[in-house]
Amino acid sequence: MRFLVDAQLPPALARWLVERGHEAEHVADHKLEAASDSAIWDFAVAASAVIVTKDADFATRKALDDKGPAIAWIRIPNVRRSALLVWFDRAAPEILAALERGETLIEMI
After folding, report:
1. What are phi and psi for residue 89, nearest 5 degrees?
2. pLDDT value at position 65?
3. Number of domains in the chain
4. Positive or negative CA dihedral for 60, 28, 68, 107?
5. Contacts of 14 (CB under 8 A, 6+ apart)
6. What's the farthest any 2 CA atoms get from each other in the chain?
7. Whole domain around residue 20: which residue ranges?
8. Which strands make up the sheet holding 23-26, listed edge to edge?
9. Is 27 helix (H, G, I), strand (E, B) or coil?
10. What does DSSP assign to residue 19?
11. How far apart are CA 79 and CA 67, in angstroms?
């Protein structure tokens, strides 16, 4: 599975996903850290990537239009990178299972 990690999340999350056997990039890897949501959306579509984000705008867009990339909407408060990776380690199996079931908007609180 391929993931595109949005700018509100650290590049370390993309590296963490790669270490666990997934294809993953951070928007900064493609000079998209300051890009519009539409540009990131279009890139994810072209790359067949799931957007991992804290941005509610992506979730809203997905809820209104089922076309486009799957969205993993991470809804935790801002935390240190190490705490985020621990949280994501616990959440990843549920996110992956939802994606494998064909869900396209996964909200993780």
Report:
1. -60, -40
2. 85
3. 1
4. negative
5. 3, 5, 24, 25, 26, 29
6. 34
7. 2-108
8. 23-26, 2-5, 50-53, 71-74, 105-108
9. helix
10. H
11. 31
